[in-house]
């Protein structure tokens, strides 16, 4: 069964597309699970809280990286691999490519260290398809501001990062996609929501996951 990951900078539309895809799969009677990183298990959700909170002592970049990898190891072993073994589709909001983008490019940690830790935490598990919803940092900032104003929810520790941080993150995502084009699908995140959903389903059909 396919393991599908949605990636992109904040505000790119991942949540919307995951929700739409979920509805489509349900209508087709396909068994699947939805999950996310950081998080996906009770323990990993506690790690998520530590990573995203804006109060108290912030983790230094190396600590941040190790927390992400600890949560990922728990996530893969207790949620993702068991679901795949059960013949269920797995759809995750972020996975290891986020760590390359945010911690290697964004935090400027050594890519080699991150690649090694990713491989260790995932036991070599690789997504069958990573869907990158690409938007500019300007569009991200506009959307995040609008969301904060409409929901009243304060921005988390990553959402308050400066634009040059997100420029590096976005560039990393595009580089990863170019390097692994057979396993990545890059979509303009500013397209109409229905258009984006259609492009995703078309890709699944090309891979013969859907008829």
Search tags:
single chain, 211 residues, alpha/beta, 5-stranded parallel sheet
Summarize the SSE layout with pairings.
Layout: E1 3-7, H1 14-27, E2 32-36, H2 42-52, H3 61-85, E3 89-93, H4 96-106, H5 111-122, E4 129-134, H6 137-151, H7 163-179, E5 184-188, H8 193-206
Helix pairs in contact: 1-8, 2-3, 3-5, 4-5, 4-7
Helix content: 55-70%
| Main beta sheet | 5 strands, parallel
Number of helical regions: 8
Rg calc? 17 Å
Strand order of the largest sheet: 2-3-1-4-5
Strand content: 5-15%
Strand and helix order: EHEHHEHHEHHEH
Total strand count, please? 5
Taking all residues together, what is the mean pLDDT? 94
- Give me the secondary-structure category: alpha/beta
Distance between the termini: 15 Å
Shape: globular
Low-confidence stretches: none
Briefly summarize what is shown:
The protein is of the alpha/beta class. It is built from 8 helices and 5 strands.
């Amino acid at each position: 069964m396919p393991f599908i990951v949605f990636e992109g900078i904040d505000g790119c539309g991942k949540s919307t597309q995951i929700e739409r895809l979920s509805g489509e799969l349900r209508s087709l009677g396909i068994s699947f699970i939805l999950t996310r990183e950081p998080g996906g298990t009770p323990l990993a959700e506690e790690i998520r809280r530590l990573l995203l909170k804006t109060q108290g002592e912030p983790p230094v970049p190396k600590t941040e990286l190790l927390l992400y990898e600890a949560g990922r190891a728990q996530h893969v072993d207790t949620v993702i691999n068991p679901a795949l073994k059960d013949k269920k589709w797995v759809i995750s909001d972020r996975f290891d490519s986020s760590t390359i983008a945010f911690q290697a490019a964004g935090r400027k940690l050594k890519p080699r260290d991150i690649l090694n830790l990713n491989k260790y935490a995932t036991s070599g598990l690789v997504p069958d398809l990573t869907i990158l919803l690409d938007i500019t940092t300007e569009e991200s900032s506009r959307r995040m501001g609008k969301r904060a104003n409409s929901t009243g929810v304060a921005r988390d520790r990553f959402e308050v990062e400066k634009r040059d941080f997100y420029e590096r993150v976005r560039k990393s995502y595009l580089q990863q996609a170019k390097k692994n084009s057979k396993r990545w699908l890059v979509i303009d995140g500013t397209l109409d929501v229905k258009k984006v959903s259609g492009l995703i389903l078309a890709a699944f059909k090309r891979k013969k996951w859907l008829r």
